[in-house]
Amino acid sequence: DEDLASDTHCLGLSLLNVALESGGDEISRSDDLISVIQDDICKSLLQNSRTSSLSVLSLTLRAIFNLFLHFKRHLKVQLEIFFTSVHLKIAAMETASYEQREIALESLLEFCREPELMLELYENYDCDVRCTNLFETLVRFLVTNAFPSDGLQGVTGGFSTLHRLALSGLVSILHSIALRCEGQRHYRVEGSTDLSSPTLNAPETDLQRKREQKRRLILAARTFNSEPSKAMPALQSLGLVSTPPTPESMAEFLRHTPGLDLRIVGEYLAKRHEFNGQVRKAFLELFPFAGLGIVDGLRALLSTFRLPGESQLIERLMESFAEAYFAKQPPVLEGGEAGAGQESHKTARWVPREKNAEEAGEPSRVKMLSSDTIFILSYSIIMLNTDLHSAKVAKKMTAAEFIRNNRGIDNGKDMPGFFLTDIYEAIRDEEIRLHGDAPVEGGGGDQNPEVDDFFWEGILRRSESIDEFSTTERLLSETPPGASERDMLQVITDCDPLPMFSLCYESISDPAVSSQAMLGLQDMVKLSAYFDQIEGVSGLVKVMCQYFLKASANGSLAAKSQVALRALLPCIMGNLSSLREAEWRLVLETVVRLWALDLLPSHLTELDDFAGADGRPLESLGSLRPPYPSPSSEAAGQANQVTPEDTGTNRQVNQPPLRQTRQDSAGDGFFESLTKWFEDETRDTEEENLALARQTQEMSLGNLFPEINHKGMADSELPVLSSDVAEVHAAVKAFIAKSNFLELFTPSGTARLPAESWQALARSAAQLSKPSGWALGPSGSPTSSDSGSRSAVPPVPPGPEADWHDVVDPIFGLELLTNMTCMPHGTSQSLSQIWPLVSTHFERLILYIVGGHGSRDQQFIERLIVNTLRLCIRLIGNVELVPTLLMLTQHLARLPEGLFNIYSERIACGLLVLVKESDLQHTGLCAIFSLLRRISESPASVGACGAGLECLNHWLADDVELSRLLSMQHFPELLSTLKAFASQNSTPPAAAAALGQLSSLVPQMARGARNLPQKSGQWQSLWVPTLHALADVARQGSQKSSAQAFVYLQRLLLEQGTELSLPWEEVEFSVWKECMEQVLLPLLQKPAAAVDSEAVGSPTPSTSADWAAARRASAAQLICRVVLTHMPDWLRRAPSGFPILFLRLLHILVSEAAEPGESQEGLQESLKNLLLVVSADPVFLELGSPNQGESLLQSSWAVVDPILPALRREIALILDPSAGLPEEAAEGAA
Predict the structure, then answer these.
(1) Cα–Cα distances in Å, from 1157 out to 71, 119, 741, 1119, 1162?
(2) How does residue 594 score in pLDDT terms, banded at 50, 70 and 90?
(3) pTM here?
């Protein structure tokens, strides 16, 4: 029999489904059939849902779905009951079987896959104050049941098909809305000038108003239920009670607000306070008691609250009811106006019977003298209701007993028996529900009620009082989402699905579940972006980045990491304007992770660097090869040995890219060749991509890059579930290329960022470009706190990858920050927006190193120096930035000696590019000269000295540059720098070249060999400083440099008719005097410490002393030769000045020659030769001395004789050998 009944049920339900599916549209046109569906069919379906038969349940749920599709306009309340009491109840009921729950969830999923149904659910239920928030309830249920509440190892059995169905339902809802956002502009709020869809404004406004009203009512009901005595301010602030409060407004609130606790309402109305009494009276005035029987009046009243338990409270309520009911009935007219001068509750009135008895010839109403009668009768009716319908009462009251109990209640008179009999029969036939058992508005109450006649009649009555189900008139596929969808997204967001998505993605190994979770997040990003919810977009992108970074740790390209990457890249590209600093930081970490996985092309991982003297890029201190190379690169590495030149970590900067014009080369940098890579990579991997390609679907990447091909990868392309690592790697790399994600870091991509997002990216790059452990203070000093916290970045497990990231992360950030500064900027961007950040950050980094910290991070320091010079090269033409740029170069000159020596060649090569590419002004030249002098001190750095000298040659070889240098009074700086290079001993060729430049410049200018706009005789002002520089080299330089400097001094001071000769006739005596005083005479001074700087080891004292002695002797010889050579000209130009100069020279020579030491013999020999020549010169013999009465020769001997008495006799013997006889000597003495 049970099987037969079940089969009969299934047959009937199948026939019903066939009728609904095939003729639903025709049936909906028949009012009679609709009435049957509203009543009998819906009631039967609700009863059938209680079955234990899976077949009956499945067919019942199918019938409900068909009713929703075809008859929803007429079944608003019924469908609400179906959702809450059938689908959601069975799916969540733990006592139901697994199969029953699965069938219920499958039916729910079918609803969720209908976009129109979800939208209509929200608009008809969540926006109706008399209905439950059905859409919110559904979403909250799906979020709650998409993952086991007690975890994967709980007693519920872990992740099952039930959870999978709930997850699919939520994702279906999101995806159906998100698909409509693709290709649409962002949602325009109401009141905007967008008139593309004016018809949507009015209904959306009405729905929003209803939704807001419902929200306020729910909040008010919650507040009132919690503490009625203190709820008045909140009710007034919500606009539900007037200010000041009136009894009428409070009564309206209690009468029409759904969700109020009926027990609390009854207690509030029954209180004896004056205001409560006024509210009670106003509350009863809201009921249409006129023409209504007393039982029906009580039914209407007691359906709005529960009677309190105290008799006094019940008495107040019944007394107020009696007065209000009695006053609404028509008065009895007897002899004119009825009850003239009497109170209204004492005036006789006609009270209607419970039954219509006119057809039987009986009166339809009875006369009642006062409201006291109604009061007594109301009590009696309540007692009768309890007696007849309480299971505790064994003997039920009869009609006769009820009539007897109510004798004399109308001012001592009896009420007609038929009147009381009608009341008795009305109560007997239909109980007055005193405790709110009927279905309440808003869908509250018992979710598993008994489906009896009373329950169903309540459903039908409620359906009559609720607005009809409104269907959307829009074609959703052609209509962009509006305010309703925005509110639906808010409902979903308020249900907090993010933790559920996270658990499904991270905890479930099934790639299909991970894909669904990420699809849900991706759709939430699209919707948040469409509705301009910036906080939501940035937060979701941040979470998705973290998912990818976690999943790809340890070099994993498993399904989870592929799924995360597939969803992440379109979200980033489509919402660049919404990203803030924290999100950009994670985006940058994502790019670095792609680098670590060897998913970036080699063009992107090449770093700008300077070329050495041989034109090849300088060798880096280390390699930045990814820790997880691709299978193809590993195979190539095993087959071929890689040379240092092929490491792929550096690219030449100054030959030739930086020789281009500044406008053309402004895009050089970390991602300079990205555009070419896209062309080459697509062409090279075309066959591979064809093999990997699947059917693709259109996916929006946002409106920021309209010309980019906005096509994402089909769901079947990623993840690639293959055991072939090379195939997986190739597929992921192809996806990255097609996503155009890397286009973001090209000049054209960065230039299109809004100003705020651009600045946030710069701040993130600056934060990333600080090595771990570098705690930078305001001026580069260490601090106890680390401002560059990476708390949002998932930690990398200790190992090779973590070490690699410690090196590469700050380098990547630094390169990006430099490129952003040097790239062409967009229309909304300005260098001034990020320059304070960039300059301050670079300064702090350099000063941290200057302070003696961070010396272990040599690769980062290398890139810091290169990028500092790159900034100077690119931006030196901006006058406003010059002071800051020069300050950075000055900080480079302060690097600790050991570090500066390591990077001196790079600094020199960078300066060479800077000098060639820019027209430096006064301050800039001073900074360059300072750095060049520091470079000259770098030991054993041939490349550094060579590049430094090439900088100087740039100025010296070009007449225009040299003229500009001279005009800015920088000749002393030039000489000082040349002298520094000439004095160093680590690179003899550089020292020789510097000496050659020192010695040749002034002669060229004097002969007019240089096309310089100089004044007449200008070279004379430069001659002595040049000689002074050479003399310093001769005195302080290495032995080889000193010897060469003496040669150049001799040639400059003595030669005639050669390339180094000068027009002596133009040299004034005062210039020669200055030369003697400042250049030549100081050469005779004995150095404080004679140390041979050329020796590799420590020189022996004898060696140093010998060389110092020889140097002084050479100086004395040179001085004497200069005096003897130019004495005729000096006598001609300054006959009075020469004797003074000669005597001073003689004083110094004599005093130095008298000092004992290795140089004494040489000094005396030079002095002897000088005196021998002048003693034999007739012109000299005739010269007068500054000492009156003496000749110059006599004054000279007066200087020599006291110190070197034997020298005069020796010279005399040379001049006259016969003077050696004693007598002749005596005569000579006389």
Answers:
(1) 125, 109, 79, 20, 10
(2) very high
(3) 0.75
Looking up tokens 């009428």, which residue turns up? 248
CB atoms within 10 A of CB 1189: 8
Each residue of 1182-1197: pLDDT tens digit? 888 888 778 888 888 9
pLDDT on residue 525: 93
* Contact call for residues 1071 and 1020 (beta carbons, < 8 A): yes
For residues 1034 and 1042, give the distance between their C-alpha atoms in angstroms, rounded to a whole number: 4
Say how far apart CA 881 and CA 559 lie, in whole Å: 49
What CA–CA distance (Å, rounded) separates 1065 from 1072?
12
What's the CA gap between 653 and 617, in Å, rounded?
A: 8
Query: 3-class DSSP state for residue 410?
Result: strand
Closest CA to 608 of 421, 870, 922, 365: 870
Long-range contacts of 452-461, Cβ-Cβ distance < 8 Å, separation of 24 or more: 454/430, 456/39, 456/43, 459/77, 459/78, 459/81, 460/38, 460/39
Cα distances from 1166 to residues 417, 1054, 1177, in angstroms, run 162, 17, 17
Per-residue pLDDT at 1087 exceeds 80: no
Nearest Cα neighbor of 75 from 110, 107, 36 is 36
Query: How distant, in Å, are the alpha carbons of 13, 86, 741 from that of 99?
Result: 19, 15, 45
Looking at this protein, which amino acid is placed at residue 976?
S
- Name the token pair of 18: 């066939």
Closest listed residue to residue 147, CA positions, set 458, 500, 406, 466:
500
> 3-state class of 1011 per DSSP?
coil
Please check whether residue 1009 is in contact with residue 956, taking contact to mean a CB–CB distance below 8 angstroms: no
Determine contact, residues 469/122, Cβ cutoff 8 Å. Answer: no
Phi, psi angles (nearest 5°) of residue 114? -105, 100
8 Å CB contact between 894 and 931? no
Mean pLDDT of 741-751: 82
In DSSP notation, 876-903 reads TT-GGGHHHHHHHHHHHTTS-HHHHHHH
From residue 1010, give the alpha-carbon distance in Å to each of 658, 963, 1029: 29, 10, 21
**At residue 710, does pLDDT exceed 50?**
no
Among 426-440, 492-506, 829-843, where is mean pLDDT lowest? 426-440
Taking the C-alpha atoms of residue 602 and residue 922, their distance in angstroms, rounded to an integer, is 41
Contacts (Cβ under 8 Å, ≥6 apart) of 262? 304, 305, 306, 436
Nearest by Cα to 543 from 492, 488, 494, 590: 590
Asked if 463 contacts 78 with a C-beta cutoff of 8 angstroms, the reply is yes
Cα(1153)–Cα(1151) distance, integer angstroms: 6
Q: Assign residue 335 a region: left if phi > 0, alpha if psi is -120 to 50, beta otherwise?
A: left
CA dist., res. 1031 & res. 1025, Å (int) = 10
470, two tokens: 């409104």
In angstroms, the CA 889 to CA 930 distance is: 9
Mean pLDDT along residues 340-355? 75
Instruction: Check residues 1001 and 508 and name the one with the higher pLDDT.
Output: 508
Beta pairing class for 650-652 and 607-609: parallel
* 707: helix, strand or coil: coil
Least confident residue range of 429-438, 978-987, 1107-1116: 429-438
What is the DSSP secondary-structure string of 240-272? SS-SS--HHHHHHHHHH-TT--HHHHHHHHH--
Tokens of 55: 């077949």
Residue 1003 has φ and ψ, to the nearest 5°, of -60, -40
Tell me which residue has tokens 């930078």: 776
Chain-centroid distance of CA 167 in Å reads 30
Helix 942-957 crosses helix 988-1007 at what angle (to 10 degrees)? 10
Q: Residue 430's closest CA among 247, 295, 588?
A: 295
Separation CA 1063–CA 827 (nearest Å):
61
For 489-510, write each residue's pLDDT tens digit.
Answer: 999 999 999 999 999 999 898 9
